[in-house]
Amino acid sequence: GAVVSQHPSWVICKSGTSVKIECRSLDFQATTMFWYRQFPKQSLMLMATSNEGSKATYEQGVEKDKFLINHASLTLSTLTVTSAHPEDSSFYICSAPKSGETDTQYFGPGTRLTVL
Amino acid sequence: QKEVEQDPGPLSVPEGAIVSLNCTYSNSAFQYFMWYRQYSRKGPELLMYTYSSGNKEDGRFTAQVDKSSKYISLFIRDSQPSDSATYLCAMSAYPQAAGNKLTFGGGTRVLVKP
To answer: Could you tell me which residues of chain A have a Cβ less than 8 Å from any Cβ in chain B?
Structure first.
C-alpha cells in the first residue's frame, strides 16, 4: 500500500485562533489530495479537493474562506482552519489517490481538532 | 435516497464466526468498489479493491460485487476481536488516480466478542 501522513495527530486550540494541518504522501506523488471531516459515529464527509498548482475545489456548504487549502507541492497539502470555533471540533482526514494495482485513495491517520 | 446505503449496525458476532457486510447502490456507472476498515480515531485502511463484477479473496477476506443487483458484500472468515472496527464501502465510476471522488457508505460498526 501507499503511505500518507498527517501532522499533527491531535491539536487543541482556543476559539478564534487558526490551526494548520499537514498532509503528506510519503512514497508517491499526488497532484490531487482530498480533505474529509468526520464526526463521531458518522461517515466521512468530503470537504474539498486539493489540486497541486491550482485552487482547491470545495464541496457545497463548505466555506472556502474558513477552510483554506494549499497544495504547495506534489507531496504536501495543508488545511488551515481559520478563526476556529468549538463547532469546528472534529476529526479531519486527508487522502491521496495512487495508481497501480489498486487504483484508489490512501488515507492519512487523521487529525483530531478540539477548539475550546 | 442516498447513493450508497449501508446498515450502520452495530453487528455483534462471537469470535470465529463469519462477518457478512453489504452495501447497495443506485448509480449504475460505479465500476470501482472498495472496502475500508477504520478503527476508532484512526484513518480508514484499504482492505479490498475490486474492479467490475466478481469475487476477490485475500486471506480471511472475500469481496463480492454483483453489478446487476447493484450490491456488494464483504465476508470476514474466522473473525477475531481485532476485526472489531467500522467497515466502510466506497465506490467510484472512474479511476482514482485521476483524482476522482469516492462515494462512501455510512459504515457498519462490527464488534467481535471473545
So the answer is: 1, 4, 6, 31-32, 34, 41-44, 46, 49, 51, 91, 93, 95, 97-100, 102-110, 112
Q: CB-side exposure of A89: number of CA atoms within 13 Å?
A: 11
Cell of A43: 461517515
Q: Is the pLDDT of residue A101 over 70?
A: no
Pick among A102, A106, A113, A114 to test the B interface (most B CBs inside 10 A): A102
pLDDT tens readout for residues B3-29: 999 998 899 999 999 999 999 999 999
Answer whether A97 sits within 8 Å of B98, measured CB to CB: yes
Q: In terms of DSSP bridges, do strands B71-76 and B61-66 run parallel, antiparallel, or are they unpaired?
A: antiparallel
